[in-house]
Structures are given as structure tokens and as C-alpha cells.
Write a structure and sequence with these properties.
The complex is a heterodimer of chains A (117) and B (113). Chain A has no helices and 11 strands. Chain A is mostly beta strands. Classes of the chains: A mainly beta (117), B mainly beta (113). At the A-B interface, strand 4, strand 5, strand 9 and strand 10 of A face strand 5 and strand 10 of B.
């Protein structure tokens, strides 16, 4: 149980285009999902917290107009990288939060490798 | 401001020996800590966690120790196996807060056969 999928796993796009990444919780409902970004050999940096039915909460320094997040249902959150540029190339990972007893655990997706040419 | 740090970027250990990965944090409000294993181009895989009310949690070959006064936690893997070779991240969270995870910088473990 507690499986999270991401689609696509890998995407290459031209500079200036927009790219949408989907994050799905396959066997549970997640009121909260998180989006992370990982640069090569670096830590996972939290970008935003996505809450179902409400606006996402962005971390300091993350442009909300650049990284559009939509959490339309309890099993799906999407991250759209708008007008992508080469510096947006990165590994994007989502997680979905599930309450287990008193604790809300995060379960991570397999990640999406974005390359902007 | 790196609130969670792993000061050793890499570690090599002989198969069968103990691997000790360390993690330090600065925010005394963190009350839940986790360790994740990650392979390149994959999402993190949960290993083990510990709440701040405990100082030790054990699960098979993995044991996490928490020293709150020192704001330090460590992951012990014994015996180490070649399949343990990966990047290990510690993460800290506020149990009753936003449930956000703050990840450390990672330690690359290499277990030599």
C-alpha cells in the first residue's frame, strides 16, 4: 500500500514551453502532497505544499507563477513548470501524506527528470 | 540556512561491518526524524523513523539513535551489505505542525564486497 506514482518519468522540452508533471496516490487519499526539487548531488529541496481544494503554500524563494501547482482531487496533484528554461532542468519529486496513527507519513513518487534544452 | 546537516558527503565500509551515518539539526522544535535511502533517478525510500520522545528505534539491521541534547541523530546499519550502497538522507519534521520534511544534504554510502 501507500504507492505514489509520477508521470512522466522523464521529459525533454524546448526552452519557453510549459511542462506538466502529475503526482498520483494510487491506493490512498492524500489531502496534502508535497513537491521537491533535487539538483545533482544535492539535497531534496521542498518547493511547495499542495493542499486539496486550496492554494498551494510555496517555500521562500520559489516562484509561484513559475511553478503552478494544482491539487484538484484527493489523489492527484500537478506541477506545471511554465516557460521552462535550462536552469529549470532538475529532478522533481512529489510525495503524498498519509496519516498512520498519530503521525502523517510522506510517501514519495519515483521522480521526474526534466531537461530543458 | 541548512537546518539539517549531514557533514559526511560519503562513506565507505567493508561488507559485514557497521555503517554509521550521522545527522545534525539546529531547530529544537523538530520532533520527528526519518532516514531515507535513495538511488539515482528514483524517489526516496523510507527506512526508519524516530520520534523525539525516544532515543533509539530498531528495525532489523537498521537502528536510529537520537541525542536531543546534542541535536544529533545517527543511523547504524549492521551488518552492511553491498545492496545498502546508496545515498542516505535524514529528514526532520514537526510532528504536530505542517508535517513538512526538511532534508539533510545526504551521505553516499558505498559498501565494499
Amino acid at each position: 500500500g501507500a504507492v505514489v506514482s509520477q508521470h512522466p518519468s522523464r521529459v525533454i522540452c524546448k526552452s519557453g514551453t510549459s511542462v506538466k508533471i502529475e503526482c498520483r496516490s494510487l491506493d490512498f487519499q492524500a489531502t496534502t502532497m508535497f513537491w521537491y526539487r533535487q539538483f545533482p548531488k544535492k539535497s531534496l529541496m521542498l518547493m511547495a505544499t499542495s493542499n486539496e481544494g486550496s492554494k498551494a503554500t510555496y517555500e521562500q524563494g520559489v516562484e509561484k507563477d513559475k511553478f503552478l501547482i494544482n491539487h484538484a482531487s484527493l489523489t492527484l496533484s500537478t506541477l506545471t513548470v511554465t516557460s521552462a528554461h535550462p536552469e529549470d532542468s532538475s529532478f522533481y519529486i512529489c510525495s503524498a501524506s498519509l496519516r498512520l496513527g498519530q503521525i502523517k507519513e510522506q510517501f514519495f513518487g519515483p521522480g521526474t527528470r526534466l531537461t530543458v534544452l | 540556512d541548512q537546518q539539517v546537516k549531514q557533514n559526511s558527503p560519503s562513506l565507505s565500509v567493508q561488507e559485514g561491518r557497521i555503517s554509521i551515518l550521522n545527522c545534525d539539526y539546529t531547530n529544537s522544535m523538530f520532533d520527528y526524524f526519518l532516514w531515507y535511502k535513495k538511488y539515482p533517478a528514483e524517489g526516496p525510500t523510507f527506512l526508519i523513523s524516530i520520534s523525539s520522545i525516544k532515543d533509539k528505534n530498531e528495525d532489523g539491521r537498521f537502528t536510529v539513535f537520537l541525542n536531543k541534547s546534542a541535536k544529533h541523530l545517527s543511523l547504524h546499519i549492521v551488518p552492511s551489505q553491498p545492496g545498502d550502497s546508496a545515498v542516505y538522507f535524514c529528514a526532520a519534521s514537526l510532528w504536530r505542525g505542517t508535517y513538512k520534511y526538511i532534508f539533510g544534504t545526504g551521505t553516499r554510502l558505498k559498501v565494499l564486497a
